[in-house]
Design goal:
23% of the residues lie in helices and 33% in strands. The chain has 2 helices and 4 strands. The longest helix has 12 residues.
Length: 95
């Protein structure tokens, strides 16, 4: 009875090591063994954006494994929260 979740993982990799990092992800089974919804190499403050889905324990375990891989300099994990159901919130009316 585990609740499904989603996490966005932003990763900074050593410059020029994108291929080696991708190979390490595959060799450790972090791509094939997990529920990676999307994996994009990007230009900007981070080099890689990965979207993981599954239960919170598995997501956390995969993120910790990925952080131990060679070439990882920094990571940031974003966990979305459920949006409010605006229909259930009473709106204050102007008088």
């Amino acid at each position: 009875m585990s609740e499904l979740s989603r996490a966005y993982v932003l990763v900074v990799i050593e410059p020029g090591k994108e291929q080696e990092f991708a190979n390490a992800l595959i060799s450790k089974g972090l791509i094939l063994d997990s529920k990676v919804e999307k994996l994009d190499f990007v230009h900007g403050a981070y080099d890689l954006i990965m979207i993981l889905s599954g239960n919170k324990y598995d997501i956390d375990r995969r993120i910790l494994q990925m952080r131990k891989l060679p070439y990882v300099r920094e990571t940031q994990t974003l966990i979305p929260f459920e949006m409010l159901d605006w229909e259930d919130i009473p709106l204050k009316q102007n008088e």
